């Protein structure tokens, strides 16, 4: 078939997809990739980090990217990989924890608020997830986490920016108990990793969550969420390089000689790593701080207005750019259905609607949402 016909077909077929610019997507933790990152990504599509002998310079850029992300997370010496996303990052972290612990019937302690990627990881790795309840701030209950420790525990996971409410677990306390019991501690900052480092500078409350805490062994941080990078771009960072030896696979026959792989994927996108490298250099801390400032300004505007609407309330004061909306008057599922009828893409969690305010969100989008919410009520 001629290319122009196929292009037309695709345009017609893809029309049903929502767009971030429509202002209707308030449920996504992804956004329009930055235009510079898109240009760089397109230019280097053939780069394959699975064969570093062919692409040694790309492999070096990947490591520089990891060091830059490490600096953001208080450890420029961190090692790790640019991976396909938060799911792969979390799987690799638990894979390492499991292999290091060398325990049969291993268990992993996570908060009930942990992302479903941990369910996938535990199934794949034959680990049992021990799900711990939350305290009244919707954070992992540290006492319950400590009580859940058994001789079979291979890891504790804390979330720095939960999927539902953007809550940060008490990582300092988790670091203390993981240290005391000599257990691997993984932090899932897939969403929060590009937000939390800027909160203090912007005058918001910030909790410690990164490598500053002595027992944090690994951190998931996703450039394809608040990092504005093209999909797929996930990040898995380790306190030191020796940790990855627990899962490294020797590949003896590659062009550059023997190579070690410690990612789940073999052939993997070098364009992702190069694009993240370029974007980190281009935006720098100041650029990302401005992105976070925009999102948080809108988040708090939304919170203020929601509180004013009779019958609606927020679930908890937000830490990040995620807001839970609840109602004591109307079943929240009905409000959700009405919003959907009006074209809004929002997420329904048990008992609340989740709104994620991303870089593509504009003040007018929030105003329109608030107007519709008032009408629905
Ligand atoms: N960890 C946390 C804390 C997450 O929130 C997510 C994804 C992951 C890990 C997994 O990351 P990947 O999806 O990159 O593997 N959280 C979003 C969510 O479930 C993912 C998402 C993004 C969903 C955009 C929908 C969407 O339109 O809400």
Give your account of this protein's structure.
This protein is α/β, with parallel strands linked by helices. It folds into two domains: 3-33 and 288-376, Alpha-Beta Complex (Aspartate Aminotransferase, domain 1), CATH 3.90.1150.10; 35-282, Aspartate Aminotransferase, domain 2. The chain contains eleven helices and 13 strands. The strands form three sheets. A seven-stranded mixed β-sheet has the order 1-7-6-5-4-2-3, sandwiched between helices. A hairpin with a 2-residue loop joins strand 12 and strand 13. The radius of gyration is 21 Å and the shape is globular. The N and C termini lie far apart (52 Å). Ligand 0PR is lined by residues 27-30, 85-87, 90, 115, 117, 159, 163, 188, 190-191, 222, 234.
State the strand order across the main sheet: 1-7-6-5-4-2-3
Globally, the shape reads globular
What percent of residues adopt helix (DSSP H or I)? Answer: 25-40%
Q: Could you state the CATH homologous superfamily of the largest domain?
A: Type I PLP-dependent aspartate aminotransferase-like (Major domain)
Order of helices and strands: HHHEHEHEHEHEHEEEEHEEHEEH
Distance between the termini: 52 Å
Q: What composes the largest sheet?
A: 7 strands, mixed
Mean pLDDT across the residues is 97
Strand content range: 15-25%
**Could you name the ranges where pLDDT drops below 50 across 5 or more consecutive residues?**
none
Q: Tell me, what is the CATH class of the largest domain?
A: Alpha Beta
